[in-house]
Amino acid sequence: MEHISDDTIASYGVGALGLGILVLVVIYALQGRVRIEPGRANKTVPRWTPFERVLHWYVAILFIVLAVTGLGLLFGRMTLLPGAGQEAFTAWANLAVSIHNLLGPAFAAGVLVMIVLWMRNNIPARYDWEFFKQGGGFVTGRYPPAGKVNAGNKLFVYWLGLVIAGTIVCVSGLILEFPDYGQSAQTMQLSSTLHLIGALAWTLIILGHAYLGSLGVEGAFEAMTCGRVDVNFAKQHHDMWAEELMQMGVTPQSSQTLEESIDDP
Ligand code: HEM
Predict the structure, then answer these.
(1) CA 191, 193, 195, 197 torsion-angle sign
(2) Is the pTM higher than 0.85?
(3) φ, ψ for residue 147 (rounded to 5)?
(4) CA 153 → CA 100, 145, 209, distances in Å?
(5) How far from 251 is each of 40, 46, 133, CA to CA, in Å?
(6) Ligand 1 centroid vs 64 CA: distance in angstroms?
(7) 3-class SS at 119?
(8) Per-residue pLDDT tens for 129-142?
(9) What is the dihedral of CA 237, 240, 246, 252, to 10 degrees?
(10) Cα of 56 to ligand 1 centre, how many Å?
(11) Which residue's CA is the closest to the ligand 1 atom numbered 20?
(12) Start-to-end Cα distance in the chain
């Protein structure tokens, strides 16, 4: 494979991340927040266990720190060096490398647990095709059928993000961090290129995911904080899953009960 320089990857990376942020700003400006259409039922159903939530935020926080230190190193030469000067830049670069290398293996372990834990939720279902045909609801304005995890999340966040980009970024990162196992210079070079491209692509996916999981969709964020969602959110965005819960005899609890249980020590 012909060598692609870090600067070339950095230039395309800036363009892609900038464009990604612009697209999200335009989507938000055009359609605002996706509301729970009938309003809240003020009754909630369980969605993510405490273990799943701790794991999610462990991986997410490490992802952010690794992205900031990684992108800081990649783009730092162009952006920080001219203003900060050589000495300050070198100090920052050393600190960023130390943090990045310290957290990298801990992040890789979290990613592995996430892949195993959530594989079952992300197996494609027959109705998932309908989700894409309807453009995830953005195109038709109707809410397509979805199980516990919708088809967009399955494809982008789980399979392309966690499984493919996650494997490429974590394995190449470990090869770069522990070079004493007889890797050739060529393997190191290839790992470096794949690490950068994989990390940039994954960051792009996570930008979209973080937007939809917070500002973009009413009712989503509390799923990963409190672990429960409003019944009307479940019916609107995950109709097949909501039906499954009802068939399993899960009774929605009033939100009052939820607040009381959160206040409990
Ligand atoms: C940085 C900010 C992030 C925010 C605000 C965020 C928010 C959320 C929320 C609210 C959910 C639950 C959605 C629902 O139940 O409907 C969720 C699920 C999930 N998140 Fe994140 N997240 C972030 C970062 C990440 C990162 C860095 C990763 C992986 C590297 C990740 C992977 C996942 C996965 C795999 C799911 C479950 C869906 C599935 O099983 O595929 N998230 N996130």
Answers:
(1) negative
(2) yes
(3) -85, -155
(4) 27, 13, 8
(5) 16, 10, 32
(6) 13
(7) coil
(8) 999 988 887 777 78
(9) -10
(10) 7
(11) 56
(12) 58
- Domains, the chain, ranges and CATH? 6-33+44-250 (1.20.950.20)
How many Å apart are CA 146 and CA 203, to the nearest integer? 25
**Beta-carbon contacts of residue 184 (< 8 Å; ≥ 6 apart):** none
Pocket around ligand 1 at a 6 A CB cut-off: 47, 56, 59-60, 63-64, 114, 118, 121-122, 149, 153, 157-158, 162, 206, 209-210, 213-214, 220-221, 223-224
Report yes or no: 32 and 215 within 8 Å, Cβ to Cβ: no
pLDDT tens-digit readout, 221-245: 999 999 999 999 999 999 999 999 9
- Closest alpha carbon to 262 in 232, 231, 225, 219: 225
Among protein residues, the one with the nearest Cα to ligand 1's atom 27 is 60
